[in-house]
Every structure is written in structure tokens, then in C-alpha cells.
Amino acid sequence: MMENDDKLLEQFFANNRQEIDDNGFTRRVAHRLPEHSHRLSQIWTVFCFTLALVLFVALNGLQLVLDTLRETLNGAIQSGASELDPKSLLIAAIVLLYLGYRKISSLA
């Protein structure tokens, strides 16, 4: 039954096929859509990044980050990890800076 219906539909559409000239309409629409959405995306990214930067400065974010790092290192030293390897700390800092840079650059 289903095969018969499929064959009838295929035959109907094959016999009644009509070509409609779009006179370049599809090309014009496709050309305009990505440009608009890309521009809107860039504006939104710049707005969000600016807002985050303003909030970071207004809420004294740099001091909070430095205080957190100081507390973390003090906690590590007090908990018995007094023999921190400077090479390991340097490698961890470089990896964190690299990952932060990659994340920021992927947003732009």
C-alpha cells in the first residue's frame, strides 16, 4: 500500500513539475543574511566584552584576583606543601595564561 502511494506521488510530481525563475533572488538573499548576522555577532561580542571589562574595573577585580592567589598560596604553604617546586608553579602559570589567552582570542 505504501509503495503504491509513493509511486503515485512520484509520478504526480514528475508530471506536474514547474520551474520558476527567481531572477537572482536566492543569490541576493543568501548574500545579505550572513553579513547581517556576522555584524550583529561582532557588535554583541564587543558590547559584552566592554561590559565585562567595565565591571571588572568597577568592582576592583584585579585586587580580588590577587587576593585570591595570595590566599591560595598561603593556604598551600600552611597545609604542609612548604616545598613548592618553582618550575611546577611556572609551568602551571604559563599553561593557565595560555588557556586564558586562547579563550579570549576565540571570542573575538
The percent range for strand residues is under 5%
**Helical/strand content category:** mainly alpha
Number of helices: 4
Helix-strand topology string: HHHH
- Sheet with the most strands? none
Tell me the quaternary state.
single chain
Distance between the termini: 56 Å
Radius of gyration: 30 Å
Low-pLDDT segments, ≥5 res: none
- How much helix is in the residues? over 70%
The total count of strands amounts to 0
What is the average of the pLDDT values? Answer: 82
Basic shape: elongated
Structure in a nutshell:
With 108 residues, the protein is mainly alpha-helical.
Could you characterize the architecture of this molecule?
This protein is mostly helical and 108 residues long. Helix content is 81%, strand content 0%.
Features:
mainly alpha; 81% helix; elongated; 108 residues; 0% strand
Describe the secondary-structure layout.
Blueprint lengths: L1 H14 L9 H34 L2 H18 L7 H22 L1
